[in-house]
Amino acid sequence: MSEIEIWPGRPFPLGATWDGAGTNFALFSEHATGVELCLFDGEGTETRIPVTQRTALNWHCYLVDIGPGCRYGYRVEGAYAPQEGRRFNPAKLLLDPYAKSIDGTVDWAHDANVLPYVPTGEEDADLEPDDEDDAAAMPKSVVIDDAFIWEGDRPPRVPFADTVIYETHVKGFTMRHPQIREDLRGTYAGMASEAAIAYLRDLGVTALELLPVHHISDESFLAERGLRNYWGYSTIGYLAPHSEYSASGRRGEQVREFKGMVKALHRAGIEVILDVVYNHTAEGNHLGPMLSFKGVDNPAYYRLMPDDPRHYMDFTGTGNSLNPVHPSVLRLIMDSLRYWVTECHVDGFRFDLASALAREFFDVDRLSAFFDVIHQDPVLSQVKLIAEPWDVGPGGYQVGNFPVLWSEWNGVYRDVMRDWWRGFANCGDFASRLTGSSDLYEADGREPFASINFVTAHDGFTLRDLVSYDHKHNEANLEDNRDGTDDNRSWNHGAEGDTDDPEIKALRARQQRNFLTTLMLSQGTPMLLGGDEMSRSQGGNNNGWCQDSEISWYDWTDAPEKAQLRAFTRCLIALRREHPVFRRSTFLRGKELKGSGLPDVWWFRPDGLKMTRRDWQGGEHVLGMFLNGREIPTPGPRGEDIDDDSFILLFNAEPEDRMFTLPRRRFGAQWARELSTAEPDAEAGSQRFGARTEIKVISRSAVVLKRVA
Q: pLDDT value at position 491?
């Protein structure tokens, strides 16, 4: 590079900021003794620039005529004293923690060693530093131009009560879609394509919850096995969209492409929720690589063991835990979140292992600084905030304990619904989850939509595999099937995996419809695992985190059973959308409504009589539910009550058919069958039943009736 004009620059904003004439670089490091900014030209030649200005613990400089597309990194000097928690090693090139674009991934096959020590295989190998330069094997940070033409883009702001979440993966959803151009498959542009958006709109979902799109780094042992970190819970860049999901380029182009995807989805009325991983990074434990944070300021960025700072606290099972107690780390998290909302227009976040973020020291504290800062933030307090309310540390299971403004993945809902349709959970537990889990959320002022209801998610079996396998089959992960949780209790379906037995196939299909019906008609916010609506299988693999392959990618080939389930799911989502009785903003109480003289919800046995205490706690897995459509409170400033149709839901999780007697005439004189999971193609309204008449509910099925008189 030619002579570069260097100015002192500013300590804020952190990262690389181009202003049209040059770029300001700012890096936080509390314990460093020196910093070098490293620039790389197109051939990879490195130019090192000492950063001598330090203000408020931030090292900074301004380079004239350096602009978008410039690749850079840092080398940070200081003590290499692992026993004291310090691991500075200027031989190792570091990514900017605030990089908005990252070019490339770690080249584990390269001769250069990205570990800060010589890997001898010994447990104490990290105590001696390695002086080998690793720049050739490292990805590079990239200066970007933030400008983007949003064309009046506005967030859809779908109320939580009206939200249907579709959890999916940018690459997995698009990689084999036949109507998406081949060069766009697996990319943000592919997700923004006409075909992808048309599919989502037709299905009726209102929000995409994308598995991590922050820039990630694969683990070295995966590279050795020829595998990839497909899920992406291995973040190394909290402000950079993962470059490998870009069709247009990796030197800033991926940022524009990501923004274009958000703009296209917003035009279709679909929100974008990002799955974010602020609890740990890709750098692993004391024997892990040095890619960024570990070399910039290890004791600031990570939670170290108080009595042994060489080692890391690990509330995540990945080797390290980020340290949001440190103000500069908390600032990084908040700056990252605000960037994705203000600059990239995303609509919310799902926080991976959110309990880890709430830990001030060891205990989970629901009033920790992290929550306090978010709640007072004028930007972040207005977007969707979803917690995965557990981690692997002591006391980490916190379902129901997150504060107001937060919704939670309701793991209790998942477990009870699975057990109900297996024939294990009792009627009382089933009814509690069906009506929004008031026992978990009502006491602290939250509403039913605080419960993110789900039966399956990326982590575990797909819906088809859930009802098809008694045991996991993770052999392709090359861990001798030891990984993943093997807790799928027997379905008594008679065979594992694919089968030609028509009775078993029919039962499995019915069970999938049972779960989808229960999910979409439960109070709360439904989350559908992408592909469950088309009976997607991973061949029994319930831990596909490392399967960037056809095991995880969606299979879009046509099949009658896929089309039938997709149509059934579409009808369920439409039924939920058209009837606010299924998406109430307040909890059901079983009390009489003045306008109808009937309770908002009433439960009955197969004989049409009211459930007794004994029925709730034991007996058969059969239940009738009357859902009153009168006087439904609506959210928003007007807060008016509206009237809707009333419904009866009949559930039979027993292996034999059951006859249900409908309730007395005062609940409704005539009822039309809206749907049956045993007869998915039956036309809505094709059958009618009077009060106190009998209806056969096929074994392991559900029937939905709508009041017509």
A: 67
With DSSP H G I counted as helix, E B as strand and the rest as coil, what are the percentages for the chain, rounded to 5? 25, 20, 50
- The helix-helix angle for 502-521 and 560-578 (nearest 10°) equals 20
CA distance 673 to 681: 12
Phi, psi of 650 (to 5 degrees): -115, 125
Residues that are catalytic: 352, 388
Other C-beta atoms closer than 10 Å to the C-beta of 589 total 13
The mean per-residue pLDDT over the stretch 246-269 comes to: 98
First to last CA, the chain: 82
Peptide bond into 526 cis (omega under 30): no
64: which strand partners? 22
Which residue carries 């910039």 as its tokens?
A: 296
pTM of the predicted structure, to 2 decimals: 0.97
Q: Which residues pair with 39 in a beta bridge?
A: 47, 72
Say if residues 540 and 465 touch (Cβ distance below 8 Å).
yes
Task: State whether the Cα torsion 666-671-675-677 is positive or negative.
Answer: positive
Query: Which domains are delineated in the chain?
Result: 6-142 (2.60.40.10), 160-580 (3.20.20.80), 588-707 (2.60.40.1180)
| Pairing of β 406-409 and β 384-387 | parallel
Look up residue 112 and give its DSSP letter.
S
Q: Residues 217, 282: contact at Cβ < 8 Å?
A: yes
Kindly tell me if the per-residue pLDDT of 241 is higher than 80: yes
Query: pLDDT by residue (tens digit) across 132-149?
Result: 999 999 999 999 999 999
The pLDDT tens digits of the residues spanning 344-377 come to 999 999 999 998 888 876 777 766 888 899 999 9
Q: Please state, in angstroms and rounded to a whole number, the distance separating the CA atoms of residues 198 and 200.
A: 6
Assess contact for 364 and 324: CB atoms under 8 A.
no
